[in-house]
Amino acid sequence: MNKLSFVGVLCTVVLAVLSTTANAAFMGRLETSPGSGVFQAYYDDLLNITWTTNANINGTDSWANQLAWAAGLSIDGVAGWRLPSMDVNGDNTIVNCVTASQADCMDNEYGHLFNYGKDTTKGNGIVPGISTVPFTMVQSDIYWSGTARDAFNTWTYRFDSGSNLSVSTEGNPRFAWAVRAGDVSEVPVPAAAWLFGTGLIGLIGMARRKKKQPK
Q1: How far is CA 136 from CA 11, 41, 118, 189, in A?
Q2: In this prediction, what percent of the chain has a pLDDT beyond 90?
Q3: What is the pTM of this model?
Q4: Domains in the chain and their CATH numbers?
C-alpha cells in the first residue's frame, strides 16, 4: 500500500471514530477510577450541559439553600455547577414540553430530559419508574430549578407528572439536580481519534519533506 492509499484509509478511520461518538447524547464523565466504568456525571450533547449522575446528592432543602449548594459543588475538582434552567433563552416563557416541538422544548432543561432524554422521540426520556439510565436516584417528585418566576416564586419541575409548576421560594423543601454548562471532559475528541489525527499529520509532513528532497 503506497502512502497516498494509507492516508486515505487513515482519514476514513478518523471520520468513522468521530461519527460514532458524535451522536452519543449521554457520555460518561468524571470516572471514579480509571477503567471502572462508573461515572459521576454525564454529558448531554443535545443540550450541551453535564448532569450529575446522582439526581439526589443533596436531598431536599429550600430554594436558596439548593442554589447555594449547587454553586459550591465540586466533583473531583470540577466546579461551576448550578440548578437546571427552565428558560434557557431568557425570554420569560416556560415551555410546556408536552405540547412543544423538541426544538422548542430544548429551552427547558428539565422538560427536555424528562420527555426526550438522549433521544429525538418524545417519550424516551428520563422518567422515574420507567427508565432513568444512566442516572441514579431520580425522584418521582418536585425539583427546584434555577429559574425564578418573580421575587417570591420560582419554577419547579414535577418528575412525577412531567409538568412545570410555579411555587413559593419560601415553600416546602424540594429536591435539586446539579448541572454544568458544556462538557466537563478535558479531552475534546476521543483519544483514538487524536492519535489517528496525529499520525495523519506526521505522514503528511513526511510526504512533503520527501517531495522537497533533490533527486
Answers
A1: 39, 10, 15, 26
A2: 73
A3: 0.77
A4: 25-192 (3.10.100)
